[in-house]
Design a protein that fits this description.
This protein folds into 2 domains: 173 residues, Leucine Dehydrogenase, chain A, domain 1 (Rossmann fold, 3-Layer(aba) Sandwich), CATH 3.40.50.10860; 167 residues, NAD(P)-binding Rossmann-like Domain (Rossmann fold). Helices cover 36% and strands 18% of the residues. The chain is built from 11 helices and 17 strands. Strand 12, helix 5 and strand 13 form a beta-alpha-beta unit. The protein is of the alpha/beta class.
Amino acid sequence: MTLKNLLERGIVNVARIPRDNDFLIENNKLKLEKLDELKGYTVPLIAHDYGASTPLMWNYLYLQLNLPIRNIMVIGDPENSKEILEDLRNDPRYLGGGAGVGFKEKVIPFLDSIIPGNLKAVNIIVKENSKLVGYNTDTLGFVKSLEESLEKVGKTIQGSNFIVYGAGGVAKEVTKMLAERKARRIRIVNRTFSRAVALAHYINETYDQIAEGIGEELSRGAVLNSEVKVDALLNLSDKGSDGNLLSIAMYDGDHPFNEKNSRDILRQLKNLRPNVLIADITSPKVQPSVSLRLAKAEGIENLLDGKPMVINQAGPAYVFVQNARPDMHSKKVTEEEALKVFKEAMERYS
């Protein structure tokens, strides 16, 4: 079984939104025979189509190096992770690829190993000697950009108070790293309250009594708390990735998102914490995300979107794949060289 088989059976479909993800599309038709023109491919898995940048960056580098390899992002149901990975494991052209929205946790039981062994989510899968190995470079990529943004206002992760939106995937790994780096307080907001509580419990048991899980309906109180003043709000969920939802859940008590009330919350937050950082890792079709647009409109200046994380995580991820199959990569790059090309691609096409 191969990627071609998965596409033929409709288990996965080629994503249409990302630039340079159309290698198999010709005159609006899928041309699977074009897979035979390639020496290899990397295959990011996502649960729904969105403006991801992975194909843009990786394919730009493949073209620069004149490698007969392409990055082909596909959409599938995470519940089919076992079948998808079994087919890809047996595909001689498959080199690995991303575990994107919906797949970051679901794929773990079907990998041969994860490194390190305590990962709660993976974002890159590497085929190493017929074995599928999961890594997480998202966390380091995001935390690096977070530290750079905090540094602009004279802060560090150590001693800062965070509100984290989301309790799965990236949120689990980033929250762990915030705890490792001595955050003062972490409040985890999630629509499913039990998931927020479970993650907070894990943090408190493993690191220190610094985390608290709260329901989405309590978001306003957490944001405007005058005793535990927030230094950064981090949207680490995929909420808002389609651009029509408020990514950072400025919830209005008994009512869902309301722009007027959300702007009022942001205005109060700006007065309470003038240097507050708002970070949003979503990649909506229309940039910027709703939360960052409203925050900017209310005068909040320290804003962080997902682009720095996407670039920072891609360098080590590419090198993992490259080093696992030196026979496929006649031209090799260092992590720094890959990052330079990825930044150029984002500047050129974003």
